[in-house]
């Protein structure tokens, strides 16, 4: 399927896919915001190396659908996100998975964190273009932000996609989540070995693996996994460790 000349996400097939896979449909206003987001990212990509996913159908599947699919299996997420919760997207890059969630859940408070200032400056311009007043940005390393009182154990939900190994992602995300909250790690492939090491890492960080979900994407049938970590007790103060350590010496 190619959407070269069509506004993104506006084909009837896509309306059906949203309905079948997420049991939900974007409003006209949200469709318009998806389209604006797409155009702004393609434009921004001319100067900044934001994403290699710029073909319309690929953008729809890998950025819009995939971002929202991560929060789909947990019906209570949807209800609580609609009611309004605090969410942090760690290593957001060009704004994924955080920006589609900001568009869909205007009552939630979203924070988009990245260590690269130029990416965050770009996202600031998107937020203002799309009038997304529920969303703020933060420049910094997850290892440092996770030790700041203002952010540590303050979020109901942490999202993290394509930022490192599962253990590193757990160490970046769980310290930021409140007790009882969730961290969602978005992955491509997944192995039993990863489950074992993640279980051990989560345990040290005050979390447990609540669910590992495998699914396929609707156009290209690519395999994806989302791993849901529940924060059950406070994270010991030594985590996250210093900048670079979670990736160099995974738990
Ligand atoms: N999450 C986005 C996505 O899936 O399209 C971007 C993924 S990109 C491969 C990884 C991003 O994480 C980069 O923008 C990088 O600057 C950021 N990053 C890597 N390590 C980080 C850390 N420790 N703290 C904050 N951001 C980090």
Automatic annotation (TrEMBL):
UniProt keyword Nucleus present: no
Species of origin: Anabaena catenula FACHB-362
PANTHER family cross-referenced by the UniProt entry: S-ADENOSYL-L-METHIONINE-DEPENDENT METHYLTRANSFERASES SUPERFAMILY PROTEIN
Purpose: Specifically methylates the N7 position of a guanine in 16S rRNA.
Pfam families in the cross-refs: GidB (PF02527)
Recorded family membership: Belongs to the methyltransferase superfamily. RNA methyltransferase RsmG family.
Listed name of the protein: Ribosomal RNA small subunit methyltransferase G
Keywords linked to the UniProt accession: Cytoplasm, Methyltransferase, rRNA processing, S-adenosyl-L-methionine, Transferase
Major site of localization recorded for this protein: cytoplasm
Gene assigned in the entry: rsmG
């Amino acid at each position: 399927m190619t959407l070269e000349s069509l506004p993104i996400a506006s084909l009837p097939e896509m309306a059906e896919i949203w309905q079948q896979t997420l049991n939900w449909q974007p409003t006209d206003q949200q469709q318009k915001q998806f389209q604006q987001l797409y155009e702004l990212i393609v434009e921004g990509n001319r100067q900044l190396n934001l994403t290699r996913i710029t073909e319309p159908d690929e953008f729809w599947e890998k950025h819009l659908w995939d971002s929202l699919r991560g929060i789909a299996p947990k019906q209570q997420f949807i209800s609580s996100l609609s009611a309004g919760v605090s969410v942090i997207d760690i290593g957001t890059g060009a704004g994924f998975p955080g920006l589609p969630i900001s568009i869909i859940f205007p009552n939630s408070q979203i924070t988009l964190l990245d260590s690269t200032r130029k990416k965050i400056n770009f996202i600031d311009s998107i937020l203002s273009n799309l009038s997304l007043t529920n969303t703020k940005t933060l420049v910094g390393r997850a290892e440092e932000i996770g030790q700041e009182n203002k952010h540590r154990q303050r979020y109901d939900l942490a999202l993290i996609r394509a930022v490192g190994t599962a253990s590193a992602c757990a160490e970046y995300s769980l310290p930021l989540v409140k007790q009882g909250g969730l961290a969602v790690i978005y992955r491509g492939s997944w192995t039993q070995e990863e489950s074992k090491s993640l279980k051990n890492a989560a345990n040290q960080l005050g979390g447990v693996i609540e669910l590992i979900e495998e699914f396929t994407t609707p156009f290209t049938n690519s395999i994806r996994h989302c791993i849901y970590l529940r924060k059950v007790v406070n994270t010991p103060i030594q985590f996250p460790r210093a900048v670079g350590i979670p990736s160099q010496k995974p738990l």
